[in-house]
Amino acid sequence: MLTVPQPPVHDDVDGCPSVTLQGDSVNGWRHVLDTLYDASFLSALHLRKLGDTLPIVSDVVRIATKYRFTGLRRECLAILGRHFPTSLDTVPQNPRNRPSLEQATAVINLAREIGGLSLLPFAYLICINAVDRDDPSIIYRDLPISFEDKAAALQGLHTVLNAQAEEMFPYAYEDAETATLGCSERCSTKEAFECFVEDSGYLHFFHGEPFDEFCIAHEFLCLRCRNHVNEVFAGGKWRIWKRLPEFFCLAENWEELIRLQDLDS
């Protein structure tokens, strides 16, 4: 290799031949070199807010994916995975700690570009959570994502809403067997959650318990019935989470989704 002459005509920087890498950004390579020469660079990104890390990690993971820097790519996906989790246990309860709609759409586009499939379910979930009475058509009108991703988000919205009613709020449509719960007050869960039925066309997945939003229902139920409702809600939420990859037409389950992602590394 050392005996091969330089091209007769070439660009140079300070007398050194330069090579143009098509599609790569200067900042991207600068950040990649930072990761190679500063061991603390990536570890520091794990601790920073998404707004600070997303531009940097996006640049690095594009190059890491393109040139098969497998370890670096995996580390970048782990950093982004802190904000777009694959485990329900790590979903932030405080909405201020969750990605914004703008960040979610940016990650959807990035994930499609680099094959970061594990980031998509939570990013889609952020998108469908933006659908409300004030803006029911936001997904297919405003989001800067591909038509395929809009279709996946809308399919997921329809499926998650059906599962939400069946798994998280079944007591809103049919009274729970309160007698078997030891209820002596003849509570009616159906009456208590009439307000959910009116709002069933919107996502309620991010609430910690059903009484967070439908607080008036608390007044209709005794302690035993409230505990039962909370247990059903939490169990339903967990079952929905397990099926998010399926609901968004990505994979059969989380394990398969991560396996498909690893095939691209």
UniProtKB/TrEMBL annotation:
Source domain of life is: Eukaryota
* Protein name in the entry: Expressed protein
Q: From what organism does this protein derive?
A: Schizophyllum commune (strain H4-8 / FGSC 9210)
